[in-house]
Amino acid sequence: MERHGLLWGTLGDAVTEAPVLRGLAERRLVYGPFDVAVAAPRVVENFLDTAHFAYVHRGWLGETSHAEVPDHEVTHTADGRPLIERYKAWQPRATAAAAEGGWVTYRYEVLSPYCALLTKQPDDGSPGDSFTMWTSPLDAESCRVWMGQYTADTSTTEEQLREFQLTIFGQDKPVLESQRPKRLPISGGEVHSAADRLSAAYRRYLKNSGVTCGVC
Ligand SMILES: [Fe+2]
Q: Which domains does the chain carry?
């Protein structure tokens, strides 16, 4: 079936679209495909991570003067997918249209082992955005990535939106590809802090889901 600007197929039973994807803003952009030399769950985990904003996206999505990860709660959907309903971040340049820094409220939801959704709403009432991260393993240690943007911003040009998003992903990609092991460890061996609670929940979810590709 065709959905979200992509063609989807399954070798198994028919699947239904996550309800949360039905209420997104109508202006939609699709970015990619991008080939990334790291396992797909690494890319999804990075998409769910906020602690790197102040370092990897300094001057854009974060700043070292606001490097702390504020307290937040990870919960789960009825079918066991991790989510954060509310996460507050201070961002120097939260969106392509942002003229100055401000507080932004994020919402994260894991959609499936290789896909996730985030919604960001600037606290000053300016138009919000949702982003989907669609990853498809090419093999156990590399993947192909598409991102969807659903924006309430009707004035910023498509070129400006695209340039902003490609800049952000261009900052993430070398960090992603430098991670070792290339597969995401879900069997222990790494120490987590409180800032990693969504990452830890995502790893537990992968383990509980019986995922074997891209993890170790
Ligand atoms: Fe990032």
A: 25-209 (3.90.380.10)
